[in-house]
What does this fold into?
Amino acid sequence: MPLDKFNIIESTLREGEQFVGANFTTADKLKIADALDEFGVEYLELTSPLASPQSRADCETIARRGYKARILTHIRCHKDDATIALDTGVDGLDVVIGTSSMLRQFSHGKSIDEIIDIASDALTWIRAQAPDIELRFSTEDSFRSEERDLFRVYLAIDKLGVVNRLGIADTVGVATPMRVYQLVSGLRRVTNADIEFHGHNDTGCAIANSFAALEGGATHIDTSVLGIGERNGITPLGGFVARMYTHNKSATKRKYKLKRLHKVDQLVAEMVGVSIPFNNYITGVTAFTHKAGIHAKAILNQPETYEILDPRDFGMTRYISIAHKLTGWNAIKDRAEQLGLELSDAQIKLVTQEVKALADIKPIDLNDVDELLHRWAAEADGELQIAESASRIANRESEKQIA
Ligand code: HCA
Ligand code: CU
It folds into this structure.
């Protein structure tokens, strides 16, 4: 399957609500849902309607709002949960049950056989109630589950023919891309169902793991804005989109309104009381900032030399930092041109040396560079005037002599 056929299940309104700073009001949720729908994600996943009366009302409101994105809610593997969830009018249910020995021992206490029985019963019942709903079954903490247990569960559920999608969850962020690829491609070989991957980012692998899942045959990837979620969260929407843009620029540009990403990141950052991290994918303040002279020179000639993402596609702008000791004369020359100052290359090289010498003594900023450039330009101007008047005088002298 080509990797461009993937779907984003945007879970800011479910996993993201599990972020410690998130406390979304109905109005907040609608703003987030509107922004994500405009951006173009294929699905929005919402907190279970059983979480609170407001959560239930919000599910109903969002399900009725007429978004292009399909609306899902996330529930435990219980018929009672499913009944309430179906009543909200959502397009699909994401059903989850823990399969790892940890969760079996310390959470629900069920054996694998019991899990299969409970899940088969609940899922068959849900399908009977709602023949057209999108139904997903996922195993929580899949990567600390015995692989043979996992496959027994997935195969038993798949065989029922009632679910559209099987989910794999790296609940604790322990997986690596190779493991994800291996597990997803193993599952791909035994099922025709869609495959979803949900990856936590505890060890920084969430984006790479999501990509490896697609390479292994997954069809759906869970994200949240800025990656917010339990602990340090899951695959961030922006970082995942950066990865997919790099894989296939035109397909990703067609799928999503990339210029809206900054607004989405900013909106959610403000709502949960954080700033967009300086080194965030695409929207971080340094994401398109270049510094070293060698980089600056090449960037000025051809941005692709050091940029795999075109900032313009995301409505962002490139910045070349020139006020430091690593600067180079090409960048200083570019700045002189921006300021409309005429200096020869030899003069620009001397200014560059002065900038470096000054930066060795103290931290400097663009004003210091500009001041040096202006001073040099004024001096150069002065020298030119002296030279011009000297040549005019010399000319007059020689005219006199001829006369
Ligand atoms: C959690 C549940 C979950 C569910 C993922 C899924 C996880 O622990 O809060 O339904 O695919 O990380 O396992 O978010
Ligand atoms: Cu999770």
Q: What stands out?
A: The chain has a mean pLDDT of 94. The radius of gyration is 30 Å. The pocket of copper (II) ion (ligand 2) is lined by residues 15, 171, 198, 200, 229-230, 234 (CB under 6 Å). The beta strands are 7-10, 43-46, 70-76, 92-98, 134-140, 165-170, 194-199, 220-223, 289-290, 319-320.
